[in-house]
Amino acid sequence: MKVSTAATQDELRTQVAIIGAGFGGLCMAIKLREAGQDDFVILEKGADVGGTWRDNSYPGAACDVQSHMYSYSFNGNPNWSKRYSSWREIQEYILATTEKYALRPFIRFQTSLIGARYDAATALWHLQTDRGLQVVCRHFVLASGPLHVPQIPKIPGLARFKGRVFHSAQWDHDYDLNDKNVVSIGTGGSAIQFAPEIAPRVRRLHIFQRTPAWVIPRDERAYAQIEKQAFARLPFLRKLHRARLYWSNESRVWPIFHPSLARVGGEALKWWIRWSVKDPQVAAALIPDYTLGCKRVLISNKWYPMFNRDNVELVTAGIREIKEHSIVTDDGQERAADCIILATGFVVDPRIYMQGMSCHGLPGHDLLRDWQDQVEAYYGVSVAGYPNMFQLVGPNSALGHNSIIFMIECQVHYILNCMKLLEQSGADSIDVQPQAQAAFNEEVQKALRGTVWSSGCVSWYTDSQGKNYTIWPWSTWRYWLRTRELNRADFILAKATGEPPLVKKSRARKKTLPA
Ligand code: N01
After folding, report:
1. From the alpha carbon of 398, which atom of ligand 1 is closest?
2. Among candidates 447, 400, 402, 361, which has minimal Cα distance to 124?
3. CATH, range 158-213+252-342
4. In this predicted structure, what is the pLDDT of residue 6?
5. pLDDT tens for each residue of 303-334
6. What digits encode the pLDDT tens for the residues 78-128?
7. Do domains 6-49+103-149+348-494 and 158-213+252-342 have the same CATH topology?
8. Run of H or E residues at 493
9. Does domain 6-49+103-149+348-494 sit in CATH 3.10.50.40?
10. Measured from the CB, is residue 145 less than 6 Å from ligand 1?
11. Are 423 and 16 in contact (CB under 8 A)?
């Protein structure tokens, strides 16, 4: 029964507040609605839904997970044009999903969370936004994702550059790259996608590489019209196709756990690189000296052949400084530049990207302080000391081998189970036992030792101490299995300690949403 849920101009009382309207936040919203819970709000910092797929619109932006896997299991799309769709098609899918499940009225756009405080007396969260709006809620779901704050490198002279500078996630579509001298810094997932697209139209393209990436061939293909029709008319065929993609992706965990297998794969790839790149010196510079898979494996058929173009140069010397119209390397060489594209990735460490947002849980718990030494959660979702707070794609729940949407759906299921348990027990708050969280993390860190991610490289999967706080170290079906049911003993259920709650629990009634 809903009693005091209400909104004023600067205060909103609701059962669930979701932060972020990307794949995660929208999935949470759809499943809440399906469970009969319409009393929620989504706070979204951007002007539209889509998260990373709204922001990353650089030329060639696409997902390196197959679209039939990189989409919701409950909202299949028979019409994907090809195996790895472009950002535009993915964003269209997200927009269509938003309309189909009628989610727009629940979203407050251009509203960023700046602070969250849990009140144990009422078992409610008080969220502060940059718009002056305060949200009082029972459950708080952080679905802002780990890859959304561009990392701008500190390169001497960058500020005095007189040409155009932009980050790959903030592509300047108004800037005409035709016939320009372009410097592109970084050789990660973003650079390997946009560089081959812009190379034919710029005058010179200087690719600045600090560490080479392993880039494997992309098994790209377009879906024929007849396949799309078959997927639409016979959904089991689409599901079968998805299942095949799922299991072929899962088979990639073998080299992850057996770095010797990854090394064999690396040897084969070296041959491919040497075959693709005509200049042996350039080919040699493009071959990584770490085990395949230690950093995220990238996929492209265009990256290596791009270095055969006369107007493309691979630069491996370090950057000494940037001048008004040029870039100077450590060996003293100066290259003219009209435009610098920073393909330098994202701030992945929550201790850095969450600095503008305070988060206080039970007395004595400040998230940034609790995570000072190590970023930890329970199944990447709950953090001990922060009752009724949940995360999507939190610590150690990201993947290197399969679709993150699969993990998000498991996490949403887990969160709904927590809410259900709370409802059934008559308690007001659910928190994870600190011992359960510690035991889980010990198990995860033990499993990570000996994997390819610990084989000796610097990657954004690990923190400055070398601790891998991002990756789930097993198959995704194990994550599914372990998050299907809650282990009741791992949780603390409690009543509010003080006054009666301001937001009464509203009973959810299961609903059928559009199929
Ligand atoms: O960023 P990255 P990204 N001077 O961190 C270099 C996802 N994604 O935007 O390796 C010089 O991978 C840095 O060098 P090093 C995906 O999860 C997904 O490309 O640190 N260079 C590296 O080469 C991916 O992993 C898709 O030595 C500097 C590069 O910049 C993540 O997003 C597509 C530097 C950064 O690579 C990020 O990808 C694209 C400096 N100061 C991206 N600082 C999909 O298809 C950094 N670098 C799903």
Report:
1. 17
2. 361
3. 3.50.50.60
4. 52
5. 999 999 999 999 999 999 999 999 999 999 99
6. 999 999 999 999 999 999 999 999 999 999 999 999 999 999 999 999 999
7. yes
8. strand 491-494
9. no
10. no
11. no
